[in-house]
Amino acid sequence: MPTSQFQPIDPRPMPGRQTGLVGWAKANLFSSWSNSLVTLLLLAVLGAGLISTWDWAVAKAVFGSQLEACNNARGVGACWGVIAEKGRFIVMGRYPDTEHWRPVIATALMLGVVAMSCMPRFWSAVLVPLWAGMLVVYFTLMKGGVLGLTEVPTDQWGGLPLTVMLTVIGMTLAFPLSIFVALGRRSTMPAIRTICTLYVELIRGVPLITVLFMASFMLPLFMPEGVKIDVLIRVVVGITLFAAAYMAEVVRGGLQAFPNGQTEAAATLGLNYWQTQRKIVLPQALATVVPSLMNTFIGMFKDTSLVTIVSLYELTGALSLALNSDANWRPFKLEAYLFITLIYFVFCFAMSRYSLWVEERTAVSKTR
User: Fold this and answer.
1) How far apart are CA 347 and CA 344, in angstroms?
2) Which CATH number applies to 160-312?
3) In degrees to the nearest 10, what's the CA dihedral of 175, 181, 186, 188?
4) Dihedral of CA 330/334/337/342: which sign?
5) 73-104: burial string, b at 16+ Cβ within 10 Å, e else
6) What mean pLDDT do residues 262-291 have?
7) pTM of the model
């Protein structure tokens, strides 16, 4: 019987590189002739756009606050001089010029305490007096009228300090309220469940601008004669109630995704309702909905621009006020809006990155 003879196979060419930037580009951008053609076309369009943007924003732009030079460059280059001329008004709003050091220190202090509260090393009981002290110092500096500080009415607060204050205080008050409302919507007590459901559906059924309008213009009509609540307090309450309703539904989603077996196990160990919620349910449920909660925070940070309707000029409102009051710089509104866009992006990006860090941290804890 003839024996089979070994036939060697010709060596195949070395496979293309699959890792790194070159490998990624080969696999995703140049995997076929059609993908390569689309990639080259998009790169050409992107390159032309970058060249035009560089030309407008840098090469032919005016960086000084020379109005004549800016008018000569209209349609050709950007006028960043509007930021040099009006930037202080945009950032600080109508707060008196000679007292700008006060909102700068107050806002830096508030952001510093918020940053400390986001770090695990500071998660202790010391945060409560720290927040209380920060709020006392913040409103003392902003309001004045004591310690030799000139009194500044709240209707003159504006710009970035007002945006930061409304966001921080509104979200800080709304978060615990949303947890109680979410628990109430899952309560076995019909009265509590009905009240919480009506609250959420009522608030979610109207836009924020309606809530602010009611808090600012309608609420004083129902107050007893002689009783007056500051417009800033009414706006903070409106933002808090609005944000709490949306966050309550996010938290409720996390609670509904929680397995009942763990609550039953907690009951067998003798834990009461609040011990179970505080030690077992809420830590896991809140970790599940971190991305959605951060979306709500970011959305409310940007929605503070609606307080302009009640004559509180935060960052966006201060920009409109600064340019509308000076017709000479009004044509350069685009550059001013790009400036505040950068400010909004920095804050929103920082919140987004912190959300990713919390997600990674909770994911590590789940794998232990």
Assistant:
1) 5
2) 1.10.3720.10
3) 140
4) negative
5) beeebbbbbbbebbbebbbbbbbeeebeebbb
6) 82
7) 0.83
